[in-house]
Specification:
It is rod-shaped and about 85 Å long. The strands form 2 sheets. The chain has a 5-stranded antiparallel β-sheet, with helices on one face. It has a 4-stranded antiparallel β-sheet with strand order 4-7-8-9, with helices on one face. Strand 5 (110-112) and strand 6 form a beta hairpin. The mean pLDDT is 89. The termini are far apart. Helices cover 34% and strands 31% of the residues. By secondary structure, it is α+β, with helices and mostly antiparallel strands. The chain has one helix at residues 5-56, and strands spanning 59-65, 69-75, 91-97, 103-106, 110-112, 118-119, 128-133, 138-144, 150-154. It is built from 1 helix and 9 strands; from the N terminus they run H-E-E-E-E-E-E-E-E-E.
């Protein structure tokens, strides 16, 4: 009419085994979710920076901060920099910190001109891109064409 001590112990033992098997999977699931979060943040902020260049009619400068975050600033006319010198923004539009342990590396400085084109420090259309890492591995890269269209690859 009740459960025996042996049945209770077997139930607790099986529950403990199942819980023990789930813990490693939870860590991997959390890592995977953080990768997705970091990639979505970057994709959204690059699109936001591109849109700001068009709506503000000014240069938008995407600066990486020690690899763990980035700042998007606006450079109003007359533009600073040029002739191979990277410009400094007149004001910051927004700053984003990546999830802990993640880092971003750009292949070259990333700037949008007032027409939405990606330009280099000389003011010529050039495109740009970078890689996103989680400390253990690089898991995504992106390329923005000179015309401002972005492609993202993740694995």
């Amino acid at each position: 009419s009740g459960i025996s001590m042996v049945e209770l112990l077997v139930t607790i033992l099986i529950s403990g085994l199942l819980f023990g098997m789930a813990i490693p999977n939870f860590g991997e699931m959390r890592r995977s979710m953080n990768k997705g979060t970091a990639l979505r943040l970057l994709e959204g902020d690059l699109r936001r920076a591109h849109a700001a260049s068009l709506s503000e009619g000014a240069h938008i400068i995407f600066n990486v901060q020690d690899g763990v975050g980035y700042t998007v600033g606006i450079d109003y006319p007359p533009y600073s920099g040029g002739e191979g010198v990277n410009p400094e923004p007149d004001e910051t539009l927004f700053t984003t910190e990546l999830p802990q342990g993640f880092s971003l590396q750009l292949w070259q400085p990333l700037m949008f001109n007032s027409h939405g084109y990606v330009i280099n420090s000389w003011g010529w259309p050039s495109g740009g891109g970078g890689m996103l890492s989680d400390g253990a591995e690089t898991f995504a890269s992106f390329w923005i064409s000179p015309s401002g269209f972005a492609d993202f690859w993740h694995w």
